[in-house]
Structures are given as C-alpha cells and as structure tokens.
Amino acid sequence: MKLDTIVNQPVIEAERFVLRPLRRSDQGLIEMHTADRELARLTASIPHPLPPGYIEAFINRSQSDGRVQDVWAIDGSADGQPEVMGLIGLTRVDEGQVEIAYWIGKAFRNTGLASEAVRAMIAANPLNSTTIFASVFQDNPASARVLTNCGFQYLGDAESFSLARDATVPTWTYSLKLD
User: What distance in Å separates the CA atoms of residue 90 and residue 165, rounded to the nearest whole number?
Assistant: First the structure.
C-alpha cells in the first residue's frame, strides 16, 4: 500500500474552496476530468486519450522533492462540492519567475472558479515569485479573460505543442509583476 507523500506546499483558502497539494486519492477524479477530449485540447500537457498510468505518474511527480512544478487541487469538499473541481499549478522557470497553468472540470466551467483560483494563488504567492507568466491557446478566449481579469498583461503571440492535438498551436502569452 502506497501512502500519500506529505508535500511542502501550503493549503490556500479561497471563498468557495481550498487549494491543496495533490493526494493519491485524487487520481480517479483527475482521470475523470482529464479524459474529456475538450479539456485535454485546451491544455498543452494532457494527452487524449489518457495512457494508462499517466495521472498516477503526474501525481508522483507533483509529490517529489525535486519537482519543478507545484500543483494544487481545487477542493470544494468543505462547501459540499467535489474534492477535485480542477487543478492549478506553478512551474518554476527562473529565479523569482513562475508560469501558472490551470484547468477546470467541465461541470464547473463558467462559474468564476478559475478566476477565484488564480486570484487566490496570486494573493498567496507561495513561491515568493516576482513575476508570473501564463500562456493560453488562442482558441481558448475564456482562459485569456481569466488572466486579464486577474491583472495579467498581454506580452505577445507564441506557440506551444499540445499533446491532445499532436500539433503546435498558437498561444497568447501574459505576465503579472508582483510587488
């Protein structure tokens, strides 16, 4: 029996949920959400279909001491919602600089959940970052609105490879300077 690793990440409280480190018990809900083709196509890192063991390996990486990405579950269980409504993560890119990424399960989209999660992450600034970067696919204007509504500034166009699309996709890049 594998036990959850205790990860050195804070629990971040928001109004409707908490952001908490991933647990092995999250695997089923994460697999359920990420098996959605539409969700996978909105991300760079989720393949479709999901290969066996992909989410288990993702959780293991998120719990490792040498990780470059900290990942939190958007957990609404204290408010009668599911333990995993989405994920949000910070990837270290340079000293004081991180890239934020997030996804929201289909049943919880267009509810303000992503904006609330991004705002909570910015307010907590758990990695003591000076700049947060973000990138969204250009055919995902909802995620772009989340970023601009949270104070991010447009930097320019780029492109990123999408596992689910098996293609390079145009992106919009944003940044937020923290004081």
Answer: 23
